[in-house]
Amino acid sequence: MHFSAEDLIPHRDRRLDQFLAEVLNRSRAAVQTAIEAGGVTVTPGKGPGTKASYRLRAGDAVDVREETLERPVSEAPPEGEAMPLSILFEDEALLVLDKPPGLVVHPAAGHDSGTLVNALVHHCGPALASRGGATRLGIVHRLDKETSGVIVVAKSDLAHERLASQFAARTVRKVYQALCRGHFRRPNGHCHGSIGRHPVQRQKMAVIPKGKPSTTAREAHTEYRVLKQGKSGALVECLLHTGRTHQIRVHLAHLGHPVIGDIVYGRDRTAWKNQIARRQMLHAHRLGLRHPLTGKEIEFEAPLPEDFSSLLAFL
User: Fold this and answer.
1) What is the DSSP secondary structure assignment for residue 49, as one 8-state letter?
2) Beta-bridge partner residues of 174
3) Per-residue pLDDT tens for 206-242?
4) Phi then psi for 285, rounded to 5 degrees?
């Protein structure tokens, strides 16, 4: 698996293990084991034996021997479960879905079943990429449990590899819609605040002020425009130019307009006139990418879910 110098441009100064864990959808531990085994080569000049803590530089390229990333043979894949899927597109390489709010993407602590991966195993059988490991079959990128909208699934390892490269190079167009608190003073704008771990509440992310030392802060860029402005809230469209953890939620809260229903970065779930948001009102509205086999530009759009539309009407 090869990541060219061009692919790595957006990831300069990142730790090698952090970069690979993100784009390969693996744990840091799994990536570090592969690096220690000599399965990762950084060129020019570094070769096998590069440390996990190495920070990517201009001109670097990275090669990964996939066999060094194998998961333990004893790890069993999740059981297939019959669950309804809202399919936007499907062929031999891809499955594109409209994920409902409340659905966890893959098994993790506290969620051993009832996840999207369980549904994928039932729907696709063996036709799912295994590069992400047994518990993440087919998963190329993730959406938070409460976030609804477009998610793409890889049905082969080749499709997974090529899609992961697109996400790493930031050529995938990701457009979200959010219901936000307050009245925006400007109809559109940009937020360039770097995002890292909150200095006190480590389970949260935060915008890190310029000049403040942080080992986790990474450049982040969100472009937004107000689609509809109400008295106490707005419908906002966000275009992601980077893909940091909780990026839209953190940036909108930093601007003073947290996503309605977001109890981590906002306030309580009451929206307006005692209307309750049962979840964070964030929706992955459109996703554009190149087909991993044909190279054709394709785009998918998921309609607003019922709870989102209902709350929008009140705002």
Assistant:
1) T
2) 240, 287
3) 999 887 877 778 899 999 999 999 988 999 999 999 9
4) -80, -45
Q: Is the dihedral of CA 137, 140, 145, 148 positive or negative?
A: negative
Q: Report the chain's terminal Cα–Cα distance, integer Å.
A: 48
Judge if pTM exceeds 0.90: no
**192 CB-side CA count, 13 A:** 1
Contact call for residues 235 and 312 (beta carbons, < 8 A): yes
CB atoms within 10 A of CB 296: 8
- Rounded to whole angstroms, how far apart are CA atoms 208 and 193? 7
Residue of 17, 60, 144, 262 with catalytic role: 144
Burial 212-224 (b: 16+ CB within 10 A, else e): eeeebbbbbbbbb
Closest CA to 121 of 67, 89, 159, 85: 85
Tell me the two tokens of residue 227.
Answer: 């689609």
Amino acid in position 45: G
Q: Can you tell me the distance from the alpha carbon of 237 to that of 37, in angstroms, rounded to the nearest whole number?
A: 44
Residue 144 annotated to the active site: yes
